[in-house]
Specification:
By secondary structure, this protein is of the alpha+beta class. The chain has 15 helices and 14 strands. It is globular and about 85 Å long.
Length: 417
């Protein structure tokens, strides 16, 4: 390969043509600085004895190849999973640059989507704009092979590039408003303009081709204190800063088959979100969480919690008993065991979805309109409560929980998230 590269550069030199170092590097699978060194007379370096040496990633090769075959996964996502899964290994998992070099050297291709077309960038002042959207129809499987279908609400602040990702069971208008309210709580303030595309929950297209904002969403924006802006039709690149959030969410694919239940999935999304805000941004060169410290000062004031919740649905408060059940719409619905003895906030949306919050954390959602008995336990909540019971023994806790739930008549009676 080096002989072919040098031969091409010598031919260009004889013809008086200066090559495109990046293009040559891409074709030969080397760094452009290596091509530049060869062009300037450095030539290939002598063998330093490292060729053929075993890599620190060889012990994980089967895992790497399995994850690399997943559609949409990225090298960064696989490396982060290895860091988490093998945190205590000695010697430790090598760094990311060594990982990408290992992939190239072993010829392991990592599936990724085609790069989008280039579009001019534009910048906004601190606190001026937030871009938001949905990552739609994501399907993943846990360690037991059970499938999970969900959507992810994503937002990005225009100046700091601070990202916010949260799972949602569906993409209804109720879901959107709840996610937007949680977004405001998470930021601790309100950006002056919120930009999105023409999602049906926000805008409708009339017979004359004109777009009109949904009245309920417009009222939420007005009361929360921000301007709702829509991209021009067929120009999603207008909100390209949030579109780039999909690059981070593709890392979630590395967790395929490596999480347990909805809570495990939520933890994986939270980890991806945290990492995306810790890494230097490609444009600013700084981590979003660092720039956010300044941008937060420019955000508008927080609306009162009573106003914010009322804009989304009916609000009530309850103390969680030892049964882990809260009452709503004439039925009882489960929450995680850690909520026992705590005062939680219940938000019932017009469409019938119940969201339960412990402080600012969304701990459970249920569909109160779904068929089922008067008591609705989520499998994960019930299995968690059974885990330390002596009568559970060493039996399969999940299977035993399912049998008991079937006897209660509550299995499948609520949203499984």
């Amino acid at each position: 390969m080096e002989r072919n590269l040098m031969a091409e550069l010598n031919a260009d030199r004889e013809c008086g043509v200066r090559p495109n170092f990046s293009e040559v590097a891409r074709r030969y699978g080397v760094d452009r600085h290596t091509v530049s060194k060869y062009w300037n007379g450095g030539g290939p370096s002598p063998d330093d004895g490292r060729h053929g040496r075993q890599s620190g990633f060889d012990r994980y090769r089967d895992e790497i190849e399995e994850k690399a075959a997943l559609p949409g996964v990225t090298a960064k996502g696989i490396h982060e999973l290895l860091l988490e899964r093998h945190a205590g290994d000695e010697p430790p998992v090598p760094g990311y640059n060594a990982f990408t070099s290992y992939l190239r050297g072993r010829g392991i291709a990592v599936g990724r989507a085609a790069a989008p077309d280039a579009h001019p960038r534009f910048e906004t002042a601190p606190g001026e704009q937030l871009q938001f959207d949905w990552k739609e129809d994501v399907t993943m499987h846990d360690r037991s092979g059970r499938g999970y279908r969900f959507d992810v609400y994503t937002s990005t602040l225009g100046w700091s590039r601070m990202h916010y990702f949260v799972r949602s069971p569906t993409r209804t208008r109720d879901d959107l408003l709840a996610c937007m309210a949680d977004n405001i709580r998470w930021l601790g303030g309100v950006p002056r303009q919120w930009l999105t595309d023409n999602m049906s929950a926000v805008a409708t297209l009339g017979g004359d081709g004109r777009r009109s904002r949904n009245g309920r969403v417009a009222a939420f924006a007005r009361e929360a204190g921000f301007e709702l802006a829509l991209c021009r039709p067929r120009t999603p690149q207008t909100k390209g800063k949030d579109e780039s959030a999909n690059r981070f969410l593709s890392r979630l694919r590395a967790y395929e088959g490596d999480f347990e239940g909805w809570e495990g999935l939520d933890r994986a999304i939270a980890r991806v979100c945290a990492r995306s805000n810790e890494e230097p941004n490609r444009t600013t060169g700084l981590p979003p969480e660092l720039l956010f410290r300044r941008e937060k000062e420019a955000l508008g004031p927080m609306p009162r919690e009573s106003v914010l919740s009322a804009l989304v649905g009916d609000v009530s408060w309850q103390m969680v008993p030892a049964t882990m059940l809260v009452r709503c719409a004439g039925r009882e619905f489960s929450v995680p065991r850690r909520c026992i003895g705590r005062r939680v906030r219940l938000l019932l949306e017009p469409g019938g979805r119940l969201r339960v919050y412990d402080g600012g954390e969304l701990v459970a959602t249920h569909d109160t309109a779904a068929p089922g008995g008067p008591i609705v336990y989520r499998e994960g909540d019930y299995a968690e409560a059974m885990a330390d019971k002596r009568w559970g023994g060493d039996a399969d806790i999940e299977a035993q929980a399912r049998r008991n739930l079937e006897l209660l008549g509550g299995l499948g009676g609520g949203e499984e998230s």
